[in-house]
Design goal:
Enoyl-CoA hydratase/isomerase family protein; 2-enoyl-CoA Hydratase, Chain A, domain 1; ClpP/crotonase-like_dom_sf; Enoyl-CoA_hydra/iso; isomerase activity; 3-stranded mixed beta sheet; Enoyl-CoA_hydra_C; binds ligand LNIPZVSO; alpha/beta; 16% strand; 50% helix
């Protein structure tokens, strides 16, 4: 049984009985190019996920031939002299959406096919917690190609994923990376045959939803927090978190199951 939480508009959201939410960019006529309407819808969908306790993992994908081709370049052209003012608002919506995605308790798995380009496409892929890419998928930043700088947090996320030297190459020279090149650089979790990308992303999601959600959420939080922390400041938070989680029913159940070598029955408590 699947709940259609948002069933029309530029972003679709549904939730299956296992707690896997599917967040889909839905402007296929524009390669899911991001305009303000899509970004506001994306932020609203993320906030809906944030408030929905049944969600245990999120699979993010794009309708049509591409994951997302970044900012809506046709929108770009229509704004003329007014683009800087328009982008001041539009880009802030992209930054808010990326921040909300990273702060979501459930992990986000991007299922990328076609192109992932620009702040919307390349940026969202970099901000996802895991990325499953089709063999034919391609990735590029595109920012400098349109006289802009990277956004969507890419100057942090990409540099941490692939290292500063590689991030400089990718963002300054704007290569189109094949899925294999993106995987080798450290951008992706796995590359799969084109026809299996969504199933593989869902399989990864089901692996996660079978584990204690409080432990999963805490692990995601600590990893993102660690990007900007020193070891000395992170160690006490890890210890505090381990202590807190050890008092949960799921932790007791997991320990008991390991001792007697049986499968655990987690409740999420
Ligand atoms: C600079 C954009 C700002 C616009 C303001 C809107 C606010 C957005 C929110 C803030 C954004 C902040 C700034 C942003 O982060 C900056 C960037 O994203 S820079 C990168 C911009 N993107 C690109 O340069 C990619 C452009 N697209 C392509 O290069 C190619 O389409 C592709 C992705 C390589 C795929 O090529 P193909 O497989 O050949 O597919 P098509 O080209 O046939 O595309 C199908 C269809 O979709 C239309 N389309 C493709 N990309 C976009 C796009 N980015 N915006 C709008 N429409 C797009 C394309 O025209 C085709 O339409 P059709 O011609 O069939 O009607």
């Amino acid at each position: 049984m699947t709940d259609k939480l948002i069933d029309s508009g530029p972003v679709l959201l549904d939730l299956d009985a296992d707690g896997v939410a599917r967040l889909r960019l839905n402007r296929p006529e524009a390669a899911n190019g991001m305009n303000v309407e899509l970004l506001k819808a994306l932020h609203s969908a993320i906030m809906l996920v944030h408030g929905e306790s049944r969600v245990r993992a999120v699979v993010l994908s794009g309708e049509g031939r591409h994951f997302c081709a970044g900012g809506d370049v046709r929108d770009f052209a229509s704004k003329g002299e007014g683009l800087p003012d328009y982008l001041r608002e539009a880009t802030s919506w992209l930054q808010i959406a990326v921040s909300a995605l990273v702060q979501l308790r459930p992990p986000v798995i991007a299922a990328v096919h076609g192109f992932a380009a620009g702040g919307g496409g390349f940026g969202l892929a970099c901000a996802a917690d895991l990325v499953v890419a089709a063999e034919s998928a391609k990735f590029f930043s595109g920012a400098v190609r349109v006289g802009m700088a990277p956004d969507a947090g890419v100057t942090v996320t990409l540099a941490r994923l692939v290292g500063l030297r590689k991030a400089m190459e990718i963002l300054l020279t704007n290569p189109t990376l094949t899925a294999r090149e993106a995987l080798d650089a450290g951008l992706l979790t796995k590359v799969v045959p084109d026809e299996t990308v969504r199933d593989e992303a869902l399989a990864l999601a089901r692996t996660i939803v079978a584990l204690p959600p409080k432990a999963i959420a805490a692990t995601k939080r600590l990893l993102w927090q660690g990007l900007g922390s020193s070891l000395d400041s992170q160690l006490p938070d890890e210890a505090r978190t381990v202590s807190e989680l050890s008092g949960t029913a799921d932790s007791r159940e997991g320990l008991a199951a390991v001792i007697v070598r049986r499968s655990p029955n987690f409740t999420g408590e």
